[in-house]
Structure formats: structure tokens, C-alpha cells
Description:
Helix content is 50%, strand content 9%. By secondary structure, it is of the alpha/beta class.
Amino acid sequence: MLIVSRMAISLRNTVIGVLIVACILLATLQTTDIGNRSSNSRNVNPEPSTSSSAASTSFSQCTQPVHKLIFIKTHKTGSSTIATTLARYADEKGLKLATPIWTHIFHETKSFSHNMVLSFGDMGHFDILTSHARYNRKEMDMVISNPKYITIIRNPVKQLESAYSYYSMAKHIGIQTDGDHELQAFLKQPRYYFDNYNYFMKVQSWNGQIFDLGLEHADHLNQTLVRRKIQQIDAEFDLVMINEYFDESLVLLRKQFCWDWEDIVYISKGVRKTTLRHKITPELAAKIQQWNSADVQLYDHFNRTFWGRVAQYGPNFNKDVLYFKELREEITSRCLDMNSHGTPTYDKRVENHKLKPNAPNYCKNMISGTMQYVNWMKFMYVFHRVLLPLTLVCLGCVFMLFLYRRFRRGNGDQYRLLDLDTTDLGSDKTVVPIYSKQNN
């Protein structure tokens, strides 16, 4: 009984220690930079005048802000900036972000499955999904109920050049030439390299955008399947944004989803350093278009339909875009020190931002990257769904132990150590505690 009593005391002290640490951790999380929902992180600027933001009757009207959406994050299209903006929106609105189990991406090559999502009984009850995932409508609908679908695409010439240099494909293939000729050397025989070399992110070296949207490489030369995929995307997506018209795309998103201006304002993320850019000649651009013909068809289709959406927006579209650009410039000037670079991050391929010493609090959220937001919201999800309930269970165990000890004392079943007796058991000496029952 003495051993049991000591174990109970040890358990009690351990649980109390866990509770103290949990309280300190929770207090720390509430004051961290990312996830700070204080009023200082909002109201970055007032709404524009009524004349510049009047709704058009020809544009589809929404009755309340959209809080259920899935963003298909294509590669090297400016998607990191969009994903961060959406993750920030989820954090500030208290929405539930669907995150990968281990890293900040679901998968680069495999089609999305709901089993890739970190979930503790919340499947179907998440709000927003922004991490890299290949489009799979059936599986994604299992994660978020009745979501809006959006994505962003880019001119295939610029997109391939960006992916090829960012992922250092020439280095992984083994092409030995200077920087401006690396891509040219690849495009002399791209199918040979694609079929015979297993280089890093090779899936992005051939029609990477339509691949992200669900079409397998084996089908890229089948014109019927390519056109069918484009028609499917047109029918199933609520908005396809265009990188070359980035601000215009966000203005469309804001109105279509009933969001505020402060919800879409951004500071660019993942911008490549100038040393990692290749010069694109007209001859090289023609080769890229021939090699990435499926992405060219995808881009041409949605570049046409994009302007149809702009026409539906109404006569104030250009005024709203101008206002948004001015708002972005103002936020950038408030937040960033443009005369110096920020501290290098884990990714040395991109430009880094440095905040001004007196920058407002919301600026810290503006420059946070996708990985930071995903990891933060993943931790908070685990904390609320696992750590906090576990802490409450431990607290309940302590309380039950307290009641048990009070009950035992009330019935007079208290034991005390009286003496020690040494019993000779062969060559061993065993200490046997002798107890006596004492009534109160």
C-alpha cells in the first residue's frame, strides 16, 4: 500500500506539471505572431467609395461570405501568394484548414485522397484546403462539404522556365552548360530526358499545370482527353485565375465570394531571385509551346473565359482594380523596408522580405509563408483535438484520485508503516514492510 500511495503522489505531481506546461503553452500560442486575431491585424484600409465598388446586376450575387473552398495549388504560377492569403483568411475567421499529415503538401505526383488529410473525426467538416494536391473532385468533396473550387494558371512558357530553374532540373539531369542554355539543351530532346531520367520534380517539366489539375502524363498527347479535361475544369471550377492578371483575378474572387478588401490584400510570396531566371527567346518560347501543348490549350481556353467574367463584373471593374493596386502599394510601403533584404529562410531560391521597425502588427501575418501557416494551424488543430482533451482527462483522473483518497479516509482505512522486518530467505535478504490498520 505504501508503494501505491507513492505512485499516486507521483502521478498527481506529474499531471499537475503537465497542466502547468499546457497552460503556459496555451498562453504562448495566444500571443504568437501567426494566428494573432487582434483588431490590429484587421482594418488595413477602409472600403473604397460606393462609386468604385458598386455591385453589378449582371454579376452573380452572393448573400454571405464564402467560407468553404478548395484551392488547387498549381506549381510556379504565383499560387503560394494565393494559398497564403487563403490560409490567413481561414486563421482570422476561425475556420478549419485541412492540412497534410506530415509535411505542408499532400502529394506532388499522386492523385489526392482524403486519407492524406490530418483528421480526428472531422472528415467532411473542414472549411478550406490550400496545400499542394492534385485535383480529385470525388475525394476532395469528402473533406469539405459543398466547397467552391478555384485555381490559378500561368502562361506555359513562363511557367516551364520558372519550374525548370527553381527545381534545378538541369543539375539533376546532368546537363552541363551555362545558365541561359540549360533550358535550351533540355528542349532539344525533352521526351528523351523525360522518359529516361528520374530527376527531381520531373512531373513539372511536361504540362505541369494540367497534370496538377488531374490529367495523367500518359494522356497528354490524346487531344480528345485533353479537351475533355479542359471542359471538365470549366464546368467544375468556380473561378480560374490568371497569373498575368493577378490583381484582376483577386478582385473577381472578392466580389464573387463576398469578401472584404482586407481579405485579399497580399505581399508576394516565393518570388524567384533574378539569378535563377533564364532568358526566353522567341525560338525557345516556340519550343516550349510545342512541348507543353496541353498546358497551352488549357491557358488559351481560360484566358478567353476570364474576360467573359470581367465583362459580367460590371462597369466598375477597372476602378476596383486600380483601388486594389493602390491599397497593395500602401500596405507594402507600411510594412516593408525596401532598401534591405530579410533574413534568409530555408528556401534560398526566393527573395525575402524585411519588415520596417515600426510596421503594424498585421504586417507580420502578411509576410508569413504558406508553410508557416499550415504548420501553425496544424499544431493548433492537434492541440484542440488531442492535447487539450488529453489534459482534461488527466485533470479528471487527478480529481477522481482525490475523491478516492477522501473516501478511504472517511471510512478509516488508513495504513501506516510500523516496522521493518528482515527475513532470511536462503542467501537473500528481503525487506518486508509491516503495516497496521489504524482507525480514526
